[in-house]
Amino acid sequence: MAADLQAKYTKLAQEYSKLRAQNQVLKKGVVDEQASSTSLKDQVKQREQSLRKVEQEMDSLTFRNQQLAKRVELLQEELAANEAKGKKSKNKGDSPSQQGLQQTQSVFDEDLQKKIQENERLHIQFYEADEQYRQQEAQLKVRLEELERDHEQHQAVVDGLTSKYMDTIERLQSDKATLEVKSQTLERETKECRVRTEECQQQLRKCQSELNRQVKQSSSVIQEKVPFNDTKFSDYNSLNVPPHNRRHQLKARDVAGQALGFVQDLVGALLNFHSYTEQRVHIYPLDSSIEPISPLNQKFSQYLHENAAYVRPLEEGLVQLYQSITEDTVTVLETVGKLKDFADHFTSYTHFLQKILPYQLKSLEEECRAPLCTSSLTSKNQELQSDMKRITSVFDKLHSYIILLALPSVRQDAMPQSSSSAVFTQLAACLHSLHDAVKEMSKHYSRKASLEQQLPTVTQKLRTTNECLLASLGVLTNSTGKIATFFSNNLDFFTSSTGYGPRGGAGALNPLQAESMLGNKKKASDYMHTIRKPRPESVPYREALLNRRVLTSSTESRQGLTQQVVASQEKIARLEQEKEHWLLEAQLGRVRLEKESQRIQDLETQLSSALGGGGSPASALSLGPGSPALTSLDDGELEERGVGKEAILSTGLVGMLTTTPTNEEVGDEESREQLIKTHYMARVGELSTHLQASDSKAVNFHAECRALAKRLAIAEKSRETLTEEVKLANQNITSLQDELATTKRSYKEQLSMMSDHLCSMNETLSKQREEIDILKLGSKGNSKLLKKGR
């Protein structure tokens, strides 16, 4: 590790030196470029000054040309005048002096013509030189601007590269510091590891010597005292306690727990699917003219209403199977008796699916015969029919495989152990086909629901039912997919060998015999544990006598207290009974008081009605509430006189008063029974509310347990995802290191390219300088020619 760190450090130092040298080269190139740019700026200024001089000379030349042109015009005018005079003199006669004058005039004319031609040629050359100079000047300006832009770009690139290199240098320096710290810590750790390895080697030598001594001693003891080897023969070896793999058993329990969670989700999805299918059967007719529900659909709905009786036992059977798998049991097909119960429950559910299949198909056919059913809906219904047939057949296959797996627990020789792996493989394939079938049915049903929503007579209730049904199908698809993937992932565990076997690994062992052996082993371990318990220390005789006295006194006092407690409890129970009795009596008295007040009110109303009918005050007073004729008639006398439901006749001074008893005049016994009945009904209601509250608490606890189990599963998944993220982070680190190496290589290449570019720029600058010198020479030659022309 230290050598690797040293090598990395040397590599980093070499790279740092290379980068430093490259940085110096770049700095030098930048300085040269700046110097060349300043020189170019100076040359541009000089060219501008020379251009101004040339323009001034041009102005002076134009002024001189104008003067020469005026002079030529004057000379031409004089020449014309002289010619006119010569013609006049010819008439008179030519003299020798005039002839000489004409000759000299012709010579001047020729010289003047030559000067004029030379002046025109000089003008043309000057114009061409000026145009060429202007073009070259524009080209040079354009090239100068391009060079300045390139210079700015190169300067920006150089600045960026310098900043990047400074950042990389700082990062490399920090990495160097961290690597130095790590190297120091690793050196310390290596020293500690060396010390530990030396200590471990010494301990290993001691252990090897001790083990060799014990082996020699045990081999001598075995040779001297063991009469025979019971693992040599299979008959004797089968009587030994077999070794048991507890990890295999814990794995079996873990797998059963995961399967239980997935099956619980599947059971919930199946219950929702059947219940929403029942609701759809009730509300599907879209036309009010059609009968709301046919007898066939009514029978189908009745069968669907019974789905919980077939679906719930699947979860209960798997819960019992999970509870039967413990750490100290042998979990194989021969010993798992609860698998047969689960297989029976699955058989009943498969029969239920086969029973409702024709009703499902007929119900879809009735939907196709509806007047509002389109051709697309008919095709979707036909696809759903094929999906339902496929799902029922897949469940039938699953039922056959589960029955095969449950047979060895009933009869051991029903299926050999070599065939169980093939059954598990076929079961996994069947679960995948179930997931595919449910997925196809969900897809077809979603398309059907979208088509039904486009119908004009669709109701909101049907839309919500379709949405709920699609949601339940989605949950069913997810649960079947989870079960299929879970079974495929654990297929190696299902088909692996059992976690027990005879000593020496030779031969096979009966599973029931192995389970009984494990039970005997547990009993033997419990017996040895009880034997090895330390005995309590003995108590001195006097202390024991004192403790006995205290114990007897305490037992007597405890017996007295228990008797007092029993007496107080009996008294409390008796007082409670009396309390209940007096409460009932108070209620009876309250009822009697209400009845008497009601009877008095009735009598007062009868009296007021009699007085209003024309009775005399004497008869009214005789029939008042304080009248002896009425007060003397109690309930017993009325019953003796037959007043139960007949009329009461009272005679007075004026006429006869007829009173009819009301229904409220009931006996005390009936009211007492009614009150007792209401009291106990109230008590029963309270107890039922308490029972419901306890049931709700139990349901909440069960839901919390399931939520905790799901959270545990989620935590496991998050742990797996975190490990995957750590792996991805390591991969990203390696990729970033590769990118760093590639960027270093690219920087090197860029530096080489920049150096080449700087060389080419220097060459172009030298060429430009040569061109500028040539132009300067050309301009000087033109100026000399112009001076000569003047």
Automatic annotation (TrEMBL):
Record GO terms (molecular function): RNA binding
GO CC terms in record: early endosome; membrane
Compartments, record wording: Early endosome
Presence of the UniProt keyword Cell membrane in the record: no
Low complexity bias: start-end ranges: 617-630
Basic and acidic residues composition-biased segments: 42-51
Region (Disordered), start-end ranges: 30-51, 82-102, 608-638
InterPro entries cross-referenced by the UniProt entry: PPP1R21, PPP1R21_C, PPP1R21_N, PPP1R21_six_helix
Protein name from the UniProt record: Protein phosphatase 1 regulatory subunit 21
Entry coiled-coil feature ranges: 130-217, 558-585, 705-746
Domain Protein phosphatase 1 regulatory subunit 21 N-terminal: 10-112
